[in-house]
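Field reference: sequence -> structure
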Amino acid sequence: MANPTTSTKDYGHSAVEKTKEAASHVGEKAREAASHVGEKAREAASAVGDKAREAASAVGDLVTSTASNIGTNVSKTAERMTAATGSSVRHLGDTIKEKGPQEGVLGGATRAVAGSLQEGGKYLEQEGFSGMMEDATELIRRNPVPSILVAIGIGFLIGRTLGSS
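Structure field:
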């Protein structure tokens, strides 16, 4: 007959080992979940980057179009393109809000990015090109030195980007 003390120790040792195995398994599953959330965040960031490039391209096309054509038709086209860009940006915000993580730190970041995109899109839709130009003119008028420094910085970044390609 087995010693009852030894048998209890064996059961206790077995329970400890099984607990360690379960904890290891839970830790592994948590790492997998974190990796999945990180992957989703990278995908959302990539989508944001793509949409931002599309929006920048649309605005660039708008500026080029406006510079080459003068008249009321140009103004109407600029307003329509700006509103369309605003709608696209707002829609991107809606998409990110729906498909991004909803909880935790990434959920907070998702909500912040989505909210900013939604508000920016709404601004573009409501103000249009002429409203943006008025706001930009007023901002430059109130802050001439910082505006010049920002313009120099943007010019430097564009120069480096074009120079490296």
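Note: The mean pLDDT is 77.
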